[in-house]
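Quick one, tokens below. Sequence please?
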């Protein structure tokens, strides 16, 4: 929300589950550079009465037949090329149990859109000029058209991915939570594929990191090169960092949870060793952001925890902990 509200001409109207609604009276292009959001859509409206009954499929078809998609397409065409007639895709998300499935919602939406338009439907979002998104929450459906060509969270689509890799918007949000500034030294001691390091470098910070696994280090170096940023990445033991005392301004990391990414000792001992090293290398008044599924294992008497944010990730409910050193 803070990142969106900082854009000139943008006013945040509402913050709710998985959504932020805002108005923009200025240039839309800066919205495509947002880093803490999964995606940005032009708001086509919201409709109530979308119950769990199958009869609402006919209502969704009728709603989609009346959408002002021409205006949305014209807005998108001012930012990027749109073929004529445009190819469109449909994505659907809903909360709660329904007596119909995602595929049936898509079919109803596609039927409605094509009633009075010569647009072409594709089920391959990557080939679509426009993406129509339906998000159903309780009995309300929110419908929008993606502003960009692809989801903003897919800015790493050309990267090499490994199990447990962090999503870029979460990495960017963690950096913002500890207020990373240009020129600061940012450390990720468990860097994995380098997502946090890339996001830190995009903030014009001095990015340093490493990982115990040689493959992760090689992938992280490749990904930073692909992202056209500079970061110092080494293979190391996060419990014995080859760094001087009081060397780092900000520490941001996704600690191993003992699931997709393993450690060579029991998790409690690993966390104890990592916390001791982070405390040693952090400068006075430095800040830390840690993502973990076992927050009770994070202990350090010298840190003050000033925020705890539970998120949803890969079917889990991990916590982002932020500290002031």
């Amino acid at each position: 929300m803070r990142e969106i509200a900082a854009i000139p001409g943008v006013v945040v109207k509402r913050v709710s589950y998985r959504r932020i609604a805002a108005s923009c009276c200025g240039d839309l292009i800066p919205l495509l550079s947002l880093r803490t959001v999964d995606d940005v859509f032009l708001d086509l409206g919201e409709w109530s009465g979308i119950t769990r009954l199958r009869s609402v499929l006919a209502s969704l078809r009728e709603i989609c037949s009346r959408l002002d998609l021409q205006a949305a397409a014209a807005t998108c065409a001012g930012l990027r090329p749109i073929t004529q007639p445009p190819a469109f895709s449909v994505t659907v998300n809903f909360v709660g149990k329904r007596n119909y499935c995602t595929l049936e919602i898509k079919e109803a939406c596609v039927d409605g859109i094509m009633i009075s338009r010569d647009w072409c439907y594709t089920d391959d979002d990557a080939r679509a000029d426009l993406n129509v998104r339906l998000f159903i929450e309780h009995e309300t459906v929110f419908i929008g058209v993606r502003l960009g060509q692809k989801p903003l969270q897919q800015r790493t689509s050309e990267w090499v991915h490994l199990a447990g890799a962090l999503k870029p918007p979460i990495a960017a949000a963690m950096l913002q939570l500890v207020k990373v500034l240009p020129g600061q030294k940012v450390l990720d001691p468990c860097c994995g594929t380098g997502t946090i390091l890339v996001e830190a470098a995009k903030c014009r910070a001095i990015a340093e990191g490493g990982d115990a696994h040689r493959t992760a280090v090689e992938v992280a170096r490749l990904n930073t090169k692909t992202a056209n940023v500079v970061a110092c990445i080494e293979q190391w033991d996060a419990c014995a960092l080859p760094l001087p005392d009081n060397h780092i301004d900000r520490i941001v990391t996704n600690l191993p949870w003992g699931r997709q990414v393993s450690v060579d000792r029991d998790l409690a001992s690993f966390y104890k060793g990592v916390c001791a090293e982070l405390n040693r290398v952090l400068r006075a008044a430095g800040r830390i952001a840690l993502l973990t599924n076992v927050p009770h294992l994070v202990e350090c008497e010298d840190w003050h925890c000033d925020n705890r944010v539970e998120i949803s990730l890969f079917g889990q409910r991990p916590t982002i902990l932020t500290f002031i050193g």
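The longest strand covers residues 282-292. The chain is about 25% helix and 30% strand.
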